[in-house]
Amino acid sequence: MEYNSENIKVTASEIAEIIKEHKTRSNKDLVVALEFVKKDFELTKESLIKMTEHLDKLEFAYNKILKEYKSRNGK
Fold it and tell me: What is the domain count for the chain?
């Protein structure tokens, strides 16, 4: 994964290094890492919400079909 902030390109491994060495890195590096982590957090959160909604729809469809199947088979 690559992140571009104010024409600064960094990879996920470079961000990992900044996080690992956060005590000795420059404020500029920390800001870049913060922006990367924030963006990744938001993307992850959005994906989880979409996946949760999809899972709920799948469960509803499954239960609806199962109910119909059971009613047809007297179970």
Answer: 1
Alpha-carbon distance values, 43 to 17, 18, 31, 35, 74 (Å): 21, 20, 18, 12, 46
Q: Report the SS3 class of residue 73.
A: coil
Tell me the whole-structure pTM to 2 decimals.
0.72
Q: How far apart are CA 63 and CA 13, in angstroms?
A: 44
Domain extent at residue 50: 2-72
Residue 68, φ and ψ in degrees, nearest 5: -65, -40
**DSSP codes of every residue in 5-58:** ETTEEEEHHHHHHHHHTTTTS-HHHHHHHHHHHHHHHHHHHHHHHHHHHHHHHH
Report pLDDT digits (tens) over 2-22.
556 566 788 999 999 999 999
